[in-house]
Amino acid sequence: MSEYRIHGATGEWEVVIGLEVHAQVTSQAKLFSSAATAFGAEPNTQVSLVDAAMPGMLPVPNRECIRQAVRTGMAIDAQINKWSRFDRKNYFYADLPQGYQISQLYHPLVGEGHLDIAPDDKDPENTKRIGVERIHVEQDAGKLMHDQHPTMSYVDLNRSGVALMEIVSKPDMRSPAEAGAYVRKLRSILRYVGSCDGNMEEGSMRADVNVSVRKAGEEFGTRTETKNVNSVRFVMQVIEYEANRQIDVLESGGKVDQETRLFDPDTGTTRTMRSKEDAHDYRYFPDPDLLPLELDDAFLHDCRESLPELPDAKRHRYENELGLTAYNANQLTADVDVYNRFEDVLAATADKTGKPEKDVATQVANWVLSVAPGVKNATEGAVEANDTTAANAGILALAAANVVSGGQAKEIYEIVLKTGREPDEIAETEGLKQNSDTGAIEAVIDEVLAANEDKVAEYRGGKDKLFGFFVGQTMKAMKGKGNPAVVNDVLKAKLG
């Protein structure tokens, strides 16, 4: 794994990166109330009296939110604290009705864990371990909208009180690529576990990006925190820009201020938001309205038993049991939707062909990862409902039986996407079947060899590479419908 360095005027600089990822907990209700959490609702329609901080309203922890945070901690091999406590973080914003946020500073629900990342997805075996310092549960604030009226700002409290997991990494990342891999891996695990949908574009997962620079081997430098970055690409851009900005400041004789910054995706730059607060500025103290959380062994056992097979375990199983390459296994297991599609199509194809899953796994993997997406993207008028597991398996079964070629499989798939017709019927009526008739293929090959006697002589004289020429001429004469395996066998016999 090559080291990432930035070459400044005074030498090489190393970047030190830590991420605080806020992940919205998958739950039908908020952290301390029964108000709904659906995305896109009309402003201020999902607000309970608790969320609006009406006098006398008391928060009650949502068991499901706690369960999901514990399951997430278990998925990253983290310490689960059987005793934890909520604290008040005091600050005023117009979108924070209480004037404080209920969070966990001193006694978080989840302690230290780790993620193993592969910065280069083409080399999934080359991994680096990134430490996770803690996961604590906290409530979100509301939302301010400054562009709805010329003189007033609007407040939407729909997000007020929504449950968040703040997943705090250690400063173990040293390049934009490592940070990008970390966010992708974390998002994948959250989606596997089902504790967060990972929709960064909807704000249900976002990152605060902490960046500092130093000469290699020196003490950590002063860091800045860029808030609420909502895509992997933007996280990497923030690091690139902020590291270079800090180096310019230091090399010109200045000092980096510890501050909170905002990212402008239009320009790819960051700007100052406010000076960075420390914990004492928030005047944390134990929340007087909430008892400590105490988890019993039965609850923890149920959480662990509910975990699915996780990405790394699934990847190794695909390699060891299905014989897939490390690259394909990594690509298939990186996202929940992709592996679900693969496993559905694999099971249906094995059933349709009567072969063990291992025997068709590579064919299905290539189809799911490359062939099908390529055809789909190029097909105008494709209907998503036509892209069924049964249709995909039907096409793959035809290819596995050498009834259709790879090119014909693509043509059939395109017609399926547009019309929803059955693959077998399309192959039959549209003439999209390979010709495996040995006699017919022999007749075509005889004509090809007779028309190219000079090249036959050259081949027999030692020019083995001409074999591909004869295959090409035969397939061309058969308009691509000759079974390649039969063509190869007959040619080899004829050429001697």
TrEMBL record:
Occurrences of domain Asn/Gln amidotransferase (ranges): 340-495
Database matches in SMART domains: GatB_Yqey
GO molecular function, one term: transferase activity
PROSITE patterns from the UniProt entry: GATB
GO process terms (BP): glutaminyl-tRNAGln biosynthesis via transamidation; translation
Domain of life: Bacteria
InterPro entries, sorted: Asn/Gln-tRNA_amidoTrfase_suB/E, Asn/Gln-tRNA_Trfase_suB/E_cat, Asn/Gln_amidotransferase, Asn/Gln_tRNA_amidoTrase-B-like, GatB, GatB_C_1, GatB_Yqey_C_2, Gln-tRNA_amidoTrfase_suB_CS
E.C. numbers: 6.3.5.-
Cross-referenced Pfam families: GatB_N, GatB_Yqey
Catalytic activity: L-aspartyl-tRNA(Asn) + L-glutamine + ATP + H2O = L-asparaginyl-tRNA(Asn) + L-glutamate + ADP + phosphate + 2 H(+); L-glutamyl-tRNA(Gln) + L-glutamine + ATP + H2O = L-glutaminyl-tRNA(Gln) + L-glutamate + ADP + phosphate + H(+)
Keywords, ordered alphabetically: ATP-binding, Ligase, Nucleotide-binding, Protein biosynthesis, Transferase
Assigned protein family: Belongs to the GatB/GatE family. GatB subfamily.
Subunit-structure text: Heterotrimer of A, B and C subunits.
Function recorded in the entry: Allows the formation of correctly charged Asn-tRNA(Asn) or Gln-tRNA(Gln) through the transamidation of misacylated Asp-tRNA(Asn) or Glu-tRNA(Gln) in organisms which lack either or both of asparaginyl-tRNA or glutaminyl-tRNA synthetases. The reaction takes place in the presence of glutamine and ATP through an activated phospho-Asp-tRNA(Asn) or phospho-Glu-tRNA(Gln).
Protein name, as recorded: Aspartyl/glutamyl-tRNA(Asn/Gln) amidotransferase subunit B
Species name: Croceicoccus marinus
